Amino acid sequence: MTFTTNRFHDVHGTPADSTVGKVRDHMHPWVQEFIRHSPFAVLSTADAEGNCDASPKGGEPGFVKVLDDRHLILPDVKGNRLFQSYENLDANPHVALCFLIPGLAHSARVNGSAETVDLTALEEREVTAQVYNPDDRAALEQGLLITVDEAYGQCPRALKFSDLWDVDTIAANRAASPISTKPPGV
To answer: Could you give the C-alpha distances from 106 to 3, 46, 128, in angstroms and in order?
Structure first.
């Protein structure tokens, strides 16, 4: 990837060569392996005006299919039927994904473009609904074929700073939620 400086670099400094070098125009084998073991991702999209949406996606590890070093398929399992991400993609095909594996401090990031694919295209690629504890709505509706523009492993600082995987905190939150109510409509 070609690195160009911007106004933030003038104030805060430029990244190390090793940091710049990790951003690639394809998925390094480490990124591919991470995605194959990830049960969770956040899909980010924006409409034509730049209004953003971030949508959690989950399933059994490997529910997002790595087709090759430049392509992924993200299956869409029936959900709330708001389809905000898909509506955004009608106006702006750019997407960003952040993949997590519980307990690991690293994450993997993918930026690119997406197009909607129907059930026939998913069946041709042998993509199935891979979810834990499926309910009666856990069926595929469609999916996204993602073409990778950038992919890289993210350093562990943010997950370490948040202590997201701390088992004592997880147990305490499960025993007595810090949130007093459920979200509206749930």
So the answer is: 23, 25, 27
Beta bridge partners of 152: 109
Angle CA 39–45–49, to nearest 5:
170
pLDDT in tens, 84-117: 898 999 999 999 999 999 999 999 999 999 999 9
The C-alpha R_g of the chain, in whole angstroms, comes to: 18
Q: Given 3.30.200.210, 3.30.70.2860, 2.30.110.10, 3.30.230.10, which CATH number is that of 16-157? A: 2.30.110.10
For the entire predicted model, the pTM comes to 0.88
Residue 77's Cα: distance from chain center in Å?
A: 15
